[in-house]
Specification:
Helix content is 27%, strand content 21%. It is of the alpha/beta class. It has one domain: Spore Coat Polysaccharide Biosynthesis Protein SpsA, Chain A. The strands form three sheets. The protein has a six-stranded mixed beta sheet. A two-stranded antiparallel ribbon has the order 2-3. The two termini are 36 Å apart.
Length: 231
């Protein structure tokens, strides 16, 4: 458990080169850029000290600054490619901040494609990290059984992914999918037990990858199912 008030950094990774839905991170969702929703959630958190955007894109950087986030430096292009990992972006950001004399105790990674996370959820999970959990993941429960998952073979036929006679353990095992675009961890690689938080609210689980997801998110806002004030 952390003894003193920890320094908490929120990192929002936002590349400019989205392929599925070009420029989706700054595409307008009910009049505001998509990334603005994650920035607003982080700024409304009572426990997050700094909100940084990790991007290689100057337009994303400028828009993010207008909504209150910090962009003290741009991410190098070599770690802003389709195959680049979020981990590389986070490591680069933390290293640059350390070079400037500031190091966080807790890292909160907020994916900008999940606009509907309440600040209270973020703070609840930060508290879990403060309690001693080395990492915190948000997940959703997969309601169908493993027996309903199939793969396609070379003959264009489908077969059970686990084979024709999966073990009884595989048939009943509870399975999860990482979701809600929220991950927390300690900067000092604590060996504390990981914590999984199952997100049940379907609105919080919305992940924008395609244009149809945008339409769904717009309807959520119009129907008043998620309300957060944006400047």
């Amino acid at each position: 458990m952390l003894k003193k008030r920890p320094k908490v950094l929120a990192i929002i990774p936002a590349r400019g080169g989205s392929k599925g839905l070009p420029r989706k991170n700054i595409r307008h969702l009910c009049g505001k850029p998509l990334i603005a929703y994650s920035i607003a959630v982080a700024l409304k958190s009572k426990l997050i000290d700094r909100v940084l955007i990790s991007t290689e894109d100057e337009e994303i950087a400028d828009i993010s600054k207008n909504f209150g986030a910090e962009v003290p430096f741009l991410r190098p292009n070599e770690i802003a490619q389709d195959r680049s990992s979020i981990g590389d972006a986070v490591k680069f950001t933390v290293t640059k901040l350390a070079d400037e004399g500031w190091s966080p105790d807790i890292l909160v990674t907020l994916y900008p494609t999940h606009p509907f996370r309440p600040p209270e959820l973020v703070d609840f999970l930060v508290d879990k990290t403060i309690e001693g959990h080395g990492s915190v993941n948000t997940v959703k429960l997969i309601t169908h059984t493993n027996l309903s998952i199939f793969s396609r073979n070379g003959d264009n036929k489908i077969a059970p992914l686990l084979g024709s006679n999966p073990s009884a353990g595989n048939r009943v095992r509870t399975t999860f999918f990482r979701s809600s675009g929220l991950f927390l961890g300690t900067n000092y690689l604590s060996s504390g037990k990981p914590y999984l938080h199952v997100v049940k609210d379907p609105v919080s689980l919305i992940d924008i990858d395609f244009l149809s997801d945008f339409y769904l998110a717009e309807e959520v806002i119009r129907q008043g199912l998620f309300d957060i004030h944006l400047p």
